[in-house]
Amino acid sequence: MPRPKFKRFVANHPEIEGYRPFGVATQDLDPVILLLEEFEAFRLVDYLGRTHAEAADEMGISRSTLSRVYDQARRSIATAFVLGKAIIIEGGDYTMKTDNQEMTRYGQGRQLSSSNNK
Q: Is 1 contained in some domain?
């Protein structure tokens, strides 16, 4: 039996729901789904310039997991750009990280604590 999968921390929902290419009729669009944790990994690494280790720590996952999520995000975005597909940002296995919470790792598990309890 595989171990349970930890939810990834996402700071905020994106301000947009997706993108669509110019010159393609809306009814002809074949969307690519970009999961929220993939969007978050892409945002942290490419937009904010975090290293994979820093981004992984912010999302509460290992660096190798971050790399897999980030690679899938880049493949999805590249597919949409090259093939003229829409990008829909939705779904995934994530937890919203609020301002008063910080993730602390304990061995292989993790605990979410309020910053007021430090």
A: no
Mean pLDDT along residues 29-49: 94
- For residues 42 and 73, the answer to whether their CB atoms sit within 8 Å is yes
Tell me which residue range forms the domain holding 103: 11-117
pTM: 0.76
Report the alpha-carbon distance of residue 20 to residue 108 in Å, rounded. Answer: 40
Label the pairing between strands 109-114 and 101-106.
antiparallel
Query: What confidence score (pLDDT) does residue 77 get?
Result: 96
Residue type for 10, please?
A: V
- All residues at 6 or more sequence positions from 5 whose CB lies less than 8 Å from its CB, including other chains: 93
